[in-house]
Write a structure and sequence with these properties.
Layout: H1 7-16, E1 22-25, H2 34-40, E2 46-50, E3 53-55, E4 58-60, E5 66-70, E6 75-77, E7 90-94, E8 100-102, E9 105-107, E10 117-121, E11 126-130, E12 133-135, E13 139-143, E14 150-154, E15 157-159, E16 172-174, E17 179-183, E18 186-188, E19 201-203, E20 207-211, E21 214-216, E22 226-228, E23 233-237, E24 240-243, E25 251-255, E26 266-270, E27 273-276, E28 282-295, E29 298-300, E30 304-315, E31 325-327, E32 332-335, E33 360-363, E34 367-370, E35 412-415, H3 458-473
Parallel strand pairs: 1-2, 2-5, 3-6, 4-7, 5-8, 6-9, 7-10, 8-11, 9-12, 10-13, 11-14, 12-15, 13-16, 14-17, 15-18, 16-19, 17-20, 18-21, 19-22, 20-23, 21-24, 22-25, 23-26, 24-27, 25-28, 26-28, 27-29, 28-30
Antiparallel strand pairs: 3-35, 31-32, 33-34
């Protein structure tokens, strides 16, 4: 006999189920300003920002919020305008726990202390930033205040940041959280003309999944392209990484420079393509006792391959010149047919918990595609396959027609017209689907190094992170 709930119980459940609201921002909407919607938002609500250009700083205090741009990508532009909330920290200050931010562009954060952020992450729990653009700020993303926090940053563009405190502001700077997953992003071209500069990605997280990104200096004055200043555990897989001719630091990837805070000190670099245009320097610089597992990477350009650390495996790596790439200058870094990287990859295997076999590839801009393997793996981040159509750069969000000037009109909606960007955030494939395409190397207790794409869901991403953290803490 099937048990059923009495109608009274069902009615009670309906009454006690929280009703999450959807708040909409824009001319003619319920909220004219983003700040007003943020003040009204309750835990679990969704705030939709209609495409246009806005000039306001916003503090988000509620928990479990989803904040997204709709009808294109709205631009929140604070260029030349004062940031004063909480003493001046950033354009979007995230104080609530478990916040998801999608499809917005944050521009021009600057404060007297020199560390104004497009996104200042101060809340607890899990942060998701997806399909966004962080441009011309002192820091693009800055935060991570709790040791058990986690973050998923995927399908975003970071460009022209690092305008603040010289050498201490970056495109992305994540503090000492538990786990960062950084995938399918394009971090490039730091602000120039400021002397010493910051990094394309700096993370102090205990566990780092740096997967299928494009980290390219592109003439900008980046210091390190990737910095893990306190080591930890990191899986650096399938990335396109470039040190440019204007770099003021000759190291491309730096590990452990500020000490080794975490008990685990293991960094796995599998199937990356790293180009050093500086003409000198070091591709990977690590401090002991960081263990390095370096397999099937392309290292192109002058410089020492590895300096410091404890190398546990150095296998299948190649050090050719740019001629092995289809168009080195134009960032088509697929191997030329018949060149040294083709079909020369060895079996990457796993670390006993996470597979080191790449299943995806970066597709420009800010998109991912399954890695098509015909025979053995190619060395480097890209396979020799027919080029996919370039989706082109993200479209401009439209002209700001605000007649006002200066900070006194902050909080006003300047232009709610269609931004012209695709509704999915302007990426070649919906950035929300990146995690559904096998975004994170999978647990592999067998140590199998079999090839072939794995199909994982977004839910599996969260399960993997929880599984990985629980496994480590036993």
């Amino acid at each position: 006999m099937r048990a059923t709930l009495p109608l009274s119980a069902l009615a009670l459940a309906a009454l006690t189920t929280p009703a999450f609201a959807q708040l909409r921002v824009g001319p003619g909407e319920a909220y004219e300003t983003i700040a007003a919607a943020a003040a009204a938002a309750q835990d679990g609500d969704t705030v939709e920002i209609v495409a246009g250009t806005y000039h306001e700083e916003v503090v988000w205090s509620a928990d479990r919020l989803t904040i997204r741009g709709v009808g294109g990508r709205p631009v929140i532009d604070m260029t030349g305008r004062a940031l004063t909330r909480q003493g001046g920290k950033g354009i979007f200050i995230l104080d609530g726990a478990d916040i998801t931010l999608e499809n917005v562009e944050l521009v021009g954060a600057s404060v007297p202390d020199g560390n104004g952020a497009g996104i200042r992450w101060q809340g607890a729990g899990h942060l998701v930033v997806r399909g966004c653009v962080l441009r011309d700020n002192e820091d693009g993303i800055l935060g991570g205040n709790h040791a058990d926090d986690t973050a998923l940053i995927e399908g975003n563009e970071f460009v022209g940041n690092g305008r603040g405190d010289v050498g201490y502001t970056h495109n992305v700077y994540i503090n000492g959280i538990d786990t960062l997953t950084f995938q399918g992003n394009w971090s490039h071209a730091l602000a120039s003309g400021l002397g010493d500069s910051g990094h394309l990605l700096k993370t102090r997280a205990r566990n780092n999944f740096v997967l299928y990104n494009r980290l390219t200096a592109e003439g900008g004055p980046s210091s390190y392209e990737l910095q893990l200043p306190q080591g930890g555990t990191a899986y650096v897989i399938g990335n396109l990484i470039e040190q440019g001719t204007s770099s003021n630091n000759a190291t491309v990837i730096s590990i452990g420079g500020d000490g080794t805070q975490w008990p685990e000190q293991r960094v796995f670099l599998s199937h990356n393509t790293v180009v050093n245009r500086l003409g000198r320097g070091t591709f990977i610089s690590a401090t002991a006792p960081v263990e390095l597992d370096v397999v099937n990477n392309l290292f192109i350009g002058q410089g020492a391959l590895i300096s410091g650390g404890v190398v546990t495996r150095e296998q299948g790596n190649l050090t050719p010149d740019l001629s092995v790439l289809v168009d080195g200058a134009g960032y088509d870094w697929r191997p030329v047919p018949g060149s040294a990287p083709v079909d020369m990859g060895s079996a990457p295997g796993s670390d006993g918990a996470v597979s080191l076999v790449p299943t995806l590839e970066y597709r420009h801009p800010m998109a991912l595609a399954p890695r098509a393997v015909d025979g053995a793996l190619d060395v480097g981040a890209l396979e020799l396959v027919a080029a996919l159509p370039d989706a082109g750069p993200p479209e401009d969000a439209g002209q700001d027609v605000d007649a006002g000037s200066g900070p006194e009109d902050a909080g006003e909606v300047a232009d709610a017209g269609d931004a012209g960007a695709p509704a999915d955030g302007g990426v070649a494939v919906d950035a929300g689907q990146l995690a559904d395409a096998g975004s994170v190397p999978q647990p592999d207790s067998s140590g199998c190094s079999c090839r072939g794409a794995r199909d994982t869901s977004g839910a599996a991403l969260g399960v993997l992170v929880l599984w990985f953290v629980a496994r480590r803490r036993r």
